[in-house]
Amino acid sequence: MANADNDSTARFPDAELKARAAWHYYVEGLTQEKISELLGIGRIKVHRILAAAREEGVVQFRISDTVVDCVVLEQKLKERFGLGQAIVVPAAADSRNSPMMIGHAAAAYIGDNVNAGDVIALGWGRTLKFAINQLPHRQISRTTVVSMLGGLTHAQPLNPTESAWDFAEKIGAECYLLPVPVYADKPEQRDAFMSQRSVQDVVFRARRANIALLSVGSFSLDSPIANYGFIKPSELEELKALGAVGDILCHFVDATGKTIDHDVNHRVCAFPMDELADIPNTILVSGGREKVAVMNAMLARTKVSVLITDEEAAKGLLGL
């Protein structure tokens, strides 16, 4: 462990050290002792850095100084994928905190970039839920939030319907929900659900969106889709054998972004995947090494305007 008064072990320049310490403390919620171990500096120096960060205005509603390495990654991502903007947050010391940290950055971006008259088509996921939870209440006139997915019939903490409603409540928007389950039991039931007038009205409103706010799901047993029992373990194995790397709007896709030809994908009640490219501004909010493959698929499948992610995913996307 670093000596409390010995700064020679610090691995980062002063400005970057200050930004990283502030991020880990105020956003990730780590203790000063843990930050000391993580950054290789003494606990007394951690305390001094955090005090200086407050005095100098580094810590405001959000952390204003951006970590240098993240800035480099942001520029490389913009160049590689033709993005209008990339936002990369420091990697979490505990990977379980990654959705919360990315969500914090997404909330700041959304708060600054949703304007009067916007129509926002919304996906779902843990990271988006964190982003919505951290949005400040701010009434934005003439805004509309439209869910791009059906809902859960069994109440769960993570639900497309709840996410859309919470988002709309935060910004004072009208809210439209797809009044059908995420997955129908059979493809023909899915077709019947999606042909209903009320459902077509919501899809029509989503088509008029000028912003799509999306996340992607990793292909793992820890994903919400697997945990909530939408799909049988045998179906997950079949999808994996067919090359699935994860899901976009609950559609399982391969590494190129192509939708897998499987019964599961024929039962999804959601906004049509092929029409994502028609929404002018698509914001992808996802991160973690486990999502690199499906994020690559999303970037290949449709035009993403803004990517909000973390260092781990950014490096994976860039092959670093």
From TrEMBL:
The record's annotation in Pfam families points to: Sugar-bind
Highest taxon of source: Bacteria
A GO MF term: DNA binding
List keywords of the entry alphabetically.
Answer: DNA-binding, Transcription, Transcription regulation
Which stretches make up the Sugar-binding domain? 67-318
Please give the family membership noted in the entry.
Belongs to the SorC transcriptional regulatory family.
Its name, as the record gives it, is Sugar-binding transcriptional regulator
Organism, per UniProt? Mesorhizobium zhangyense
